[in-house]
Every structure is written in structure tokens, then in C-alpha cells.
Amino acid sequence: MTKYSSIAALLFASLLAACGTKEVQQLTGIDAHARVRFFNFGVNAPGVNFYANATKMTATTSTTGTESTNGVNYGGVGANGAYSSLDPGQYTLAGKIAAATDKDLAISSVSTTVEDGKYYSFYMSGIYNATTKSVEGFVVEDPFVIQTSDSTSTTVRFVHAISNANPMTLYAKNTTTGVETAIGGEVAYKGAGAFVNLTSGAYDLSTRYTGSTTNVLTRPGVSFVGRKVYTITARGDITVAPSTACAAANRTCLDNTANR
Q1: 243 in a structural domain
Q2: pLDDT for 152-199, tens place per residue?
Q3: What is the DSSP letter of 24?
Q4: Which pTM does this prediction carry?
Q5: Fewer beta carbons under 10 A from the terminal one: N or C of the chain?
Q6: Residue 241 phi, psi dihedral angles, 5° rounding
Q7: What is the dihedral of CA 26, 30, 34, 35, to 10 degrees?
Q8: 159 and 238 part of one domain
Q9: Cα–Cα distance between 258 and 232 in angstroms, integer?
Q10: Are residue 41 and residue 122 in the same domain, yes or no?
């Protein structure tokens, strides 16, 4: 062994001795936060940006690269349906006018407490009052469980956001087997039903009032993909003729937005 090899060996041995048996630090990943998403389902409501206290949670970018004055319009969901992260705590969640006129005027707000690791949805709902410049709102928890092991299973639940409609139950009829399943029980306005597991596939959706066999709302041919979670929300004005496509303003319809 040369002089230089001996020196290198000694240095290596010293380095190992210095390391000793000290354990490597284990990183546990990103801390859990609450997560919230935002819907503008207030009939006739203007476009809004959504806030948690003074923090802007959603905004729409225009073609010029600046913030659009349109905001999230009726029937829309902020951030394309994605959840925004919040530290746990108490917040006032609000929809504020995005347009230049009445800019940042809060037209709907709800005080709520969010917890670590939990998911929530904030809805502007009901019918916009143009005189008071206000619309109702509510928050529901989204306690879903993702099916990671079964690719043939999907999860669905129902939220009721029509202020002038009676409590109703959502039904999903498999277009292949003809089997119809109640998605939880009866749900009243501002309420959310339980998440229910279904076989993935195409379904015809409908809602009915308690004790009635007549469909109140329908939406045919909705596809539910395995390992995904969906929320079906009734929105609109019950006195206006329904739309199966949710395309026309004011019309009642069943919105389908994936949670995950």
C-alpha cells in the first residue's frame, strides 16, 4: 500500500467513526391542511372571486394576462373544481363581485371552521337579490374515501342547492343492468347526502320528492369512472323548466363535478 493509499484509508475510517450509529432523519411529508372548493350556484348572481377572510382563493385570468372582471360565473366552480389549501381554523368564506362596478362587494358569506386533513365545499345558492345584492350560501364537508384497490367501484353523493325546492332523493339507474340505486337518503336544501359506492359505468340520474314516483330533475347518460369520487348537485330555480344539460341560466339541473 502506498503512502497516499494509507492516508485515504485512514480518512475513510475516521469518517465512518464520526458517523457512528446516528439514524437518518425521516421526513414525514407535507403537513396536512384543510381543503376547500367554491361553487357559484346562486341563480342570477354576478361573477365572483372567492375569498377566505381577506385571502383571495380563486380568480380568472383574461387574455391580456390580467385578472378578468368576469370571475366565476353562475354554474361555475372555482379553479376548475380543484380544492384550495387552507390552514385549519375559523374563516369567513365569501363570494365577492369581480366586475368593476361594486368591485369586491361580498354578496354571499358563511362563517365556518375547517380542520386538518378534511375537505369542504362552499356553495353560493338560492336566488340572487338584486336589491340587497346578496345571495345565500352554505358549506358542507366532503368526507369521501378514494377506492384505490377496486377499479370497478366509484363513489357518488348528492347535494341540494335549490332554495325553492322540497327535500329530495337522488337515484342512479345503471343503463346496462337497469338497476336503480338511491344515493343516500332524502336531502333538504343546503344539505348533503352520504357518499355511496356504485359500480363504475353509465347511469341515468333523477331526483324525486318523498312519497312520489315522479321525477323532479333528470340527467341521462352520466358516466362514473372507477376509483373516482363525484358530487351531483341540484341547482337552479324550481319554477323554471329544467334542462338536462345544465346549459341555460336559471333552469334546474343536476350538476356533476368530480371531487377526485
Answers
A1: yes
A2: 999 999 999 999 999 999 999 999 999 999 999 999 999 999 999 999
A3: P
A4: 0.85
A5: N
A6: -55, 140
A7: -140
A8: yes
A9: 9
A10: yes
